[in-house]
Amino acid sequence: MSALVSVIYTVCFRLLSAAHNRPMQRDGSMASDQTLEHFRSRGFMRVPGAFGAREAAAMRAAMWRVLEESNIREGEPSTWTTERPTHLQELKDDPVFGAAWGPRTRAAIGQILESTSWPEPRSWGGFFITFPSAGEWNVPSRAWHTDARYTSALAPPEGVKLHALMGDVEPRSGATLLLAGSHRLLHRWFKDHPPQPDARGSDHRKSLMSHPYIRDLHTEAGAVERIARFMERVEEHDGIELQVVENIGAAGDVILVHPLLLHAASLNSGRSPRFLLSGSVDLDSMWAAA
Ligand SMILES: O=C(O)CCC(=O)C(=O)O
Fold first, then answer.
1. What is the pLDDT of residues 151-167, one digit of tens each?
2. Distance 176 CA to ligand 1 centre (A)
3. Which residues contact 4 (CB under 8 A, 6 or more apart)?
4. pTM across the whole model
5. Mutation test of ligand 1: which of 166, 255, 278, 282 has the most ligand atoms closer than 8 Å to its C-beta?
6. Ligand 1 close to Cβ of residue 83 (< 6 A)
7. pLDDT tens-digit map of 48-95
8. CA 145 / ligand 1 centre spacing (Å)
9. Ligand 1 site, residue 164, Cβ cutoff 6 A
């Protein structure tokens, strides 16, 4: 293959991969985001239609009931003045949210944890709602985080995060942003740069900022530049493909996320609120070793 053909092939490969939000295989097929292989390489796995449209509607209705206590009403967008309302925890024991943890979700968790026995989640999860807001949509340069012990295991992981979409989530409409591949980057980084035994979360984050990609991700720049660099491009660092992807999908989808995967909330430039249930299963070892 001449050098020119090789360059054209690589560019097409990158563009097609980015357009589909997932890596293309060398044989030209797309790696499905519903496989364990995808979870291992990219750090997340989708369980499409893990619960039904009716169950999703019941979850949203429960959330609106609580929002009404703060005078935020479904039919009145003029009341949607708080971008990310809090104080929704009174919902945490409401059985309606149990549907997100149904048999298909559980089977996928078992696959990921390579075990059929894992501790039940302490609650259904936390409730994240993002109302539409003005302002330019961009890849955020702050608030990227994991909810795990930074030095926890890569495979099988010592837990798994659950993101249940309670409504359809369109692009640029408040979806959680995931840094695909970052679970492998974090794991490698802390192997190569072992933290002091008494290191805190802030020390780990400071250490990570020495990684050029992570440093750039936290450096402000215009939307066009950041979207092109972080979302439309797959960048390879030490053999790990990194790309920011939006956690979009249909009501009823569950996305299982590796606990080491960096993620961040994003602005909702759409017209409808974004509803997310974010839960987790943590093995006893996740925090025991902290
Ligand atoms: O998408 C969001 O609102 C943030 C979700 C999040 O940070 C989490 O699930 O830990």
1. 999 999 999 999 999 99
2. 6
3. none
4. 0.90
5. 278
6. no
7. 999 999 999 999 999 999 999 999 999 999 999 999 999 898 998 899
8. 9
9. no
Q: Among all chains, which residue has been given the structure tokens 């409730």?
A: 127
- Number of Cβ within 10 Å of residue 35's Cβ equals 14
Instruction: Measure 125 CA to ligand 1 centroid, in angstroms.
Output: 11
Spatial CA neighbour of 60 closest among 169, 167, 140: 167
**pLDDT at residue 225, as a whole number:** 98
Which of 248, 242, 285, 251 minimizes the C-alpha distance to 43?
A: 242
Q: How far apart are CA 106 and CA 164, in angstroms?
A: 13
What does the alpha-carbon distance between residue 206 and residue 211 come to, in Å, rounded to a whole number? Answer: 10
Enclosing H/E stretch for 37 = helix 36-42
Cβ within 8 Å of residue 58, ≥6 positions away:
96
CA nearest neighbour of 260 among 177, 154, 163, 189: 154
What is the position in ligand 1's atom list of the atom closest to the CA of 266? 1
Orientation angle between helical segments 201-208 and 182-192, nearest 10 degrees: 100
Ligand 1 within 6 A of 165 CB? no
- Sheet holding 126-130: strands in order across? 44-47, 254-257, 159-165, 274-282, 126-130
- What is the tens place of the pLDDT at every residue in 141-150? 999 999 999 9
Q: What is the largest CA-CA distance in the chain?
A: 67
What is the pLDDT averaged over residues 160-176? Answer: 98
